[in-house]
Amino acid sequence: MTQFSSYSPENAPAAQHSGPYIDCRDLFKIYKRSELEVVALRGLDLSVEPGELIAIIGASGSGKSTLLNILAGLDRPSAGQVIVGTRDLLDVSDSDLVKYRRSEVGFVWQATARNLVPYLSVADNIELPMALAGQPAKARRAWSGELLESLGMIEKRYRFPYQLSGGEQQRAAIAVGLANKPPLLLADEPTGELDTENADSIFEMIRGLNRSFGVTVVTVTHYPGVSRFVDRVVHIRDGRIGSETFSRPDYRRDGDTVEDEYVVVDQAGRLQLPLEYTDHFRHGGLARIQSDGGKIIIEPPDSNPRPSRTRPSQNRS
Ligand code: ADP
Ligand code: MG
Predict the structure, then answer these.
(1) Using CA atoms, how far apart are residues 79 and 81, in angstroms rounded to an integer?
(2) Which of 27, 55, 94, 138 has the greatest number of C-beta atoms within 10 Å?
(3) CA triplet 267, 272, 275: central angle to 5 degrees?
(4) Which has the closest alpha carbon to 63: 229, 244, 185, 242?
């Protein structure tokens, strides 16, 4: 992959920030539809380092898109803290949010058709956000050319989206996302409509972009092979981070990556048991916890007599 000469180093988040680039603490998002409230994020904690490449996985409805939309400035959080770079997204003015969306973050949707303007060529699609940001025509042409060259798409620059394959459309979409050289790229299931081969090449490309100019990347995906391409896989469940998996490339053998999975203990000391253990516990019930030297043991209470969460006075009277 070509180095992106014009993605200037001072634009790279790593050069600007000490501490995490994304810092979500006890983040809540509640959707209200008439009388109904849906808690899409419930006390989510997540830190992402500058230049890190992470994947978020989780069941449908677990809050992945909600989180990404908040990070993209497309939706506002209900409570908690979410800081991206130097911006507090809970407390940002509408006009600042527009600036943020335009120049600080690139976004790629799953639906290929949603990412590109159908009646503009690939090059014009890339140059449109640059024009909106006030970039002169010469700089626009130069950067779109450089991006397309790097993505192996230069000969497709005059094509319209309908003349591209799904994989090519997503490549073009990533180029559009990087048009204004944002320090952060977000992608919501970018390979959801692609086959394995195309998915591999898209993630390979995203990793190349991340490595070549330090753009921080958060991608939501169902793609099982994603751990080979990212620094960390974050598992979201019921609107909270349950566990994280780290790939250790130093232990890579025969193409297999050894992965360590860790349960996340959040700021308030809460942890979410991995699903395979929850059957041992009564939901909403009690657990016994004790420390044994270096280990902490969490076990279901003795089944006989079974502690109850209802107050004794209620039971007896
Ligand atoms: P995922 O992307 O992990 O599938 P989402 O973030 O889209 O999950 O949704 C999380 C929860 O929030 C779901 O229960 C979903 O129905 C709800 N939700 C998402 N967007 C809205 C909305 N605009 N209005 C009401 N509920 C929503
Ligand atoms: Mg989603």
Answers:
(1) 7
(2) 27
(3) 165
(4) 242
Taking the centre of ligand 1 as the mean of its atom positions, its distance from the CA of residue 44, in whole angstroms, is 15
Ligand 1 atom nearest to 66, measured from its CA:
6
Phi, psi of 176 (to 5 degrees): -65, -40
Q: Summarize pLDDT for 203-217 with one digit per residue, the tens.
A: 999 999 899 878 999
In contact, 174 and 194? CB cutoff 8 Å: no
Instruction: Please check whether the domain covering 9-104+182-263 is classified as CATH 3.30.70.240.
Output: no
- Residue 238: band (very low, low, confident or very high) from pLDDT cuts 50, 70, 90: very high
Helix (H, G, I), strand (E, B) or coil at 117: coil
Residue 188 Cα, ligand 2 centroid: separation in angstroms? 7
User: For ligand 1, which residues put their CB under 6 angstroms from it?
Assistant: 31, 33, 38, 40, 58, 60-66
Q: Which ligand is nearest to the CA of 110?
A: 2
Q: Residue 230 C-alpha to ligand 1 middle, in angstroms?
A: 25
Ligand with minimal distance to 60 CA = 1
- pTM value surpassing 0.90: no
pLDDT in tens, 53-99: 999 999 999 999 999 999 999 999 999 999 999 999 999 999 999 99
Residue nearest to atom 16 of ligand 1 (CA): 61
